[in-house]
Prior knowledge:
The chain is an alpha/beta fold. The chain has a domain at 317-518: P-loop containing nucleotide triphosphate hydrolases (Rossmann fold, 3-Layer(aba) Sandwich), CATH 3.40.50. Helix content is 67%, strand content 11%. It has 16 helices and 10 strands. It has helices at 2-8, 10-42, 46-94, 98-106, 109-120, 124-148, 150-197, 199-204, 208-260, 266-308, 362-370, 406-411, 418-427, 431-437, 451-464, 481-495, and strands at residues 316-318, 323-333, 336-347, 351-355, 377-382, 388-390, 392-395, 469-473, 499-503, 515-518.
Amino acid sequence: MIKNLYKNNKRKSILLFFSGFIVGLLSVIPMVLVQKVIDSLYLEEKYLFIKFVVFYVLIYITADLLHIFVFNWGSKFELRLNRDIKDKVVKRILDTTMSDLEKCGKSNIFNVIVDDLKELDGKLVKLMLGISFSFSAFIIGSIITISYDYVMLIIMLLISIIASSTIKRILLKSENAVKDSQNQRLILTNILYDIITGTRDIRLFSKRKSFLNEFSEENKNLVVYDKKILRIKNSSEVSVSFIFNLIMAVILLIGGFRVYYGDLSVGSLVAIIMYTSMITDPIFQVVDNQKELSTFKNAIKRLDDILGNMNADENVYVSDFDKVELKNIFLEYGDNCVFKDFNLVFHKGDKIKFHGKTGSGKSTLAKLITGLYKPTSGEILVDDKTGIFVQVSAVFQENKLFNLPIIDNITFKSTVDEERLHQIIKICRLEEVIEKYQSNNIGFDTSSLSGGEKTRVLLARALLINSELYILDEISTGLDEKLFYDIFDDVINYLGEKTVIVIDHKKINDEYFDAVICV
């Protein structure tokens, strides 16, 4: 999925690489011209000196302008590509079955998705231009060095290749250590999130010490991994420095003997030393770029693996219906059998109550009706047709309020009729709540709202949607009996001939309902 997006943009990526290569070549040429300028001064060639200075300035400015142009073009290309990737990821998540999403939530996969998307941001241009610049510097450096002495070039290449192999092994250890650190950081982030969002309960149940000890222990483990990364990084830097100085020592030693025996001039040896870094640095940089490239590729692979395991929700939804039938439903979670040969029929306009003890499967049954869950076996028929579900408006216990003002949580990105909105606010007794919070955001964890306030906001959101089927799960949460019945009376009157399924632990009077289903 994500890999295909990069494949579809292969031509632009190749163009970016070759543009970087050309800019890299132009950026190196001024270094060569500096030597020509110095030589012309030494030979007292006035016009030659001016010509080389002019060439130097023109090529330097051209290379600089081209570098800015290529970088800007590449950055815009990458921004568009990353935008498409994020759109693709979000679309896939929104189209995924609820059961798959719940599995992802339990395994913290969404944190991995966020981290991997960060890894992709701003990396492509940096990698492509870094590799292309290194390649162009290596080409120019090799051509210049070979024009002086091909033996010295071979020696440099041999030592550099052997050295890069050693550094690559060091980087492999670093890569493994980074993975361990990332996993540990994820664990620590999850604990920190629990502490921030659950501080009230932690204090209430006197668990401050337990959470602090757990966080401190995991934080110590993270420090151990990070110290290991630091040691590997330091040893890598020392190795690179040692190898470079070794190359310089070998060049001086062999070059000195070649000068002594007349096979090489002193000027040529000085020039070779000057251009040594143009050959060795790119080789070391390729190893370093390989590490970045490996991280980049791993992020793409992880994203594709995660998104590939998300099955698309292929349900077809209808706005109107006459009859819904659950036929011979069998549902199990692992070894737990929730429903066995369960049957249910209800018609448009029915008012139904699901009654049963905690954990009996009342909410699960409602989610089967909506198509959020799929039965292990059996059929769910809408007007005697399979694969079709009724578009519902629902309040479930897991429904989320967003970090938005109360009104925006109710309207939920919809354009609404103001008169109808005020009617629903009045039904749900939310006037004082809206006055209390006004246009302030309620926070990501909505801890500023009481349980009853949350329930009423979620109920108002559900009532605002014009649907033929309403499912109201535990809408008495946080409400005293009088307030609940005041609201519930108004809700039933407001919904009129609509189909309503109510799930609640409280003994709501059966007179409200056409049928009571014991689960």
